[in-house]
Amino acid sequence: MTVRAAALAVVVLGLGASALLGAHLDEREPRGDVVPAPPSPLALRAQALGDGQFAFRARSLQLQHLGNLGGRVVPYKAMDYGRLEEWFRTLDRLDARSDVVPMSAALLYSGTQTPPDVRHIVAYLADHVRRAPGREWRWMTHAIYLARFRLEDSELALDLARELAAFEAGGIPAWARNLRVLVLADMGRTEAARALVRKLVQAEGMPRAERRWLRYYLKRELQADTSPLRR
Hints:
single chain; mainly alpha
């Protein structure tokens, strides 16, 4: 047998083995432990020989690929979102400053085909922000969006928007603190939205650009007279 023929035989055998493996895996149901229970942060550190950052980065990377390991692609709807929430919170205890975990929660796992699962993500994101609102406030805006448009829970979205507005930490921009206006208007509570905007426009310390935007929104979107309001 020539070298060329031997190489061709190896390729054919490899393709055949790959096809057989694919057919075998296609007949198997996804394993129930696609999302295993997370170990404690102490156990994760111990597994990484005491290197907490290594444990955090390795497990964060693994978290991003759950369901795409072991030769199968498992849909989000087949995953245990309660377990996922436990993973998010456990990894936060290893590194609460990194954006990797909230980003995975808000932008990756929020794509589940079962919208009620998103409630776990909203609960995690809100708690993540509460620990350091001045640094993490932006994840509350994601929680508000998910509550309103994925869960279709307007009251939860409004509660979170009010909480974001009430944080005393500095560094939160006016547009984020004023998301409750948009939520109220989206809920059809136009009169309440108008009253809130009027109050905000008259508030001391409101940045001029934000004041102009609020006046514009009040006039164009909420159909209200702005002439009596301060400029």
